[in-house]
Design a protein that fits this description.
Chain lengths: ~350, ~350
Amino acid sequence: MTSLIAYITRRLIFLIFVLIGVTLMIFAITMLFSPEIRAYLYIRNIQHVTPDVVRSVIEKYGLNDPFYLQFSRWLGQVLQGNLGWSQSSAQPVAEAILTRWPYTFEIVIFAAPLIIFFGIYLGVQAGVHRNGIIDHVTRVFSIIGYSLPSFWLGLLLLSVFYGKLGWLPPGALSYEAEQAVHASSFVRYTHIDLIDGILNGQFWITLDVLKHVILPVIVIVVIDIAVLVRVMRSSMLESLSKQYVTAARAKGLDEKTVIYKHARRNALIPVATLSGMLVAGLLGGLVITETVFGFGGLGQWAANAAIGLDVPAVLGYAMLSALLFVIANLIVDIMYAYIDPRIRLE
Amino acid sequence: MEPRVKEWKFMVKRVRETPLALAGLIIIIFFILIALLAPVLAPPTYSDPFKIPQDKEIYSLTPNPTPPTLTHIFGTSDQQYDIYYACIWGTITAFRVGLTVVLISLIIGLILGVAAAYYGGILDEILMRFTDIIIAFPGLILAMALVLAFPAAIPINLSSIFLVFSIICSFIIIMAHPDKKLLLITQMIVVAFLVSYIYQPIVLHLEITNLDKVLFAIAIVGWPGYARLIRGEILRVKNEDYIEAAKAAGSSDFQIITKHILPNTIYPLLVVVSMDVGSIVLTAAALSFLGIGAPIDYADWGQMISRSRAWIRNPEMLASNFHTFFIPGLFITLFSLGWNLLGDALRDVLDPMLRRR
């Protein structure tokens, strides 16, 4: 147990280094811009800007200072809990992240379980029936899956289900639902409309969310399931060729027990890592998919911030993603210690 | 037969026996043919062949896209750019993007991966933590930030480059041939460049197009994968007996790396390279889709699709302009599919666990 605590401590220290590294890198990139351009990030009313204003802003925020001074100043602000002002969304960065993440969450809560469940199921079947029909079919479909541009798939689905049929609209909520959600009688317990709809007894809002979520979820599942299926398959093949499987068969166990109790359990280990990374990646925002459907989650926000050269927002987003990535890594590693007694956390 | 030749023959035989690999190869060859025959298939109208011709006649009537006709067999996009032309010449763009990015990431990954694995220690630790940082980063957003932050023109001081280069050359010459005449000539060249550097530096303003920026950005995001793979592979073969033998025989580090280690790590690399060309083209297209990348009149598949972003909340436009994003998207998907099919088949052929069964 002490080794586990020491391990977690070490990983958390490592996390701090990763966060500093990530932000240092973004900061270095933004330093390629002239102080005049960066000054605009601090001006809330861009319409009335004179060169004098720009000069005073550069002076006030020390935009001409050396790199390390500017970075340490920003870091000091972050340590005090101030992530800065996001110019592209006209609100503080922390607030922007808090208002965007429920939308991303609404997609991930459906997409992630679907991907992991079907990915593992199809991968196991493909591995067990190597070179059988299911193996060939999943192989072809997964290769097509990761050859598909997500924005193209999204556009095709939109043009059919929205353009031609008018069934599944883009966006995260319809206009009526948007009005209802912002009405004073509607209590936003979680800020996740999907759940708040049920909690307020207004099920039509939840249904409305579901209607908007279907297409993005399809896009994510079709594209992201491919990798999981392939990894599960090859892991299963490797596991089936191991001696403990031969031993289990020699003991006279029936094939089902051999496959599901012996082979699959061991084959799941690499898939656990992949699933952890996948969920972390999804929670960090679905940049392209959210943009195609105008869903307004973290990913779309980050894309807009990057296009608008909104440095504080991009920095905040980068920290969030790195945080999710490292935490997912940590959880997976700790899970390993329980799944596989051979792995010692050193 | 020499074992390496035997290995290649075995590989080619296995690829030919796998229908999916064959399909992948056929798709790639099909695109190579399109790229080679582009001037015949779609004769350029401008001196820059990547500039898409615009049908001014229809444009005077309507800016909206028109469906396929005999003159424009894939139809036109908004502002009447010819989609067929863009798709044909976009093939060359796709090859350029895919192969250049793979090459750049491969070179960076190779140098750093070899350095980390072969020398180990603190260098290994620093390099690997650096790759951790880049991998922990949301790749697409990092690439976007890089594309936007790169300046459009980089001034390159040629004088300083020549100066350094000539000094190094003169040193090499002095070491190799202590010849008075040569020495004099090289010293004169060094002095000439020095004078030029001080009084009249030759500065080249290297213009960087948006597409070049996209290439660099994707390579910067992509190299850590290669560095890690190469490092892992080298660590795997580093302690093999034949490396020890080569060391005992007195081979230099450079010889051991190039003659013994790299040839043994090449097969897993082939798989990744093949799959990567496919995914790089997708990433580049995604950047174009987000509005970062090639300009509106440049023959690039992703750029063609990016205009449909404007119709996302307009069902009529989405339905009636189906061809403007369906056709370029089909090119992207097929191109990526070809490389992925090949890579997937290569993996099965090259995987020592699964081969020869």
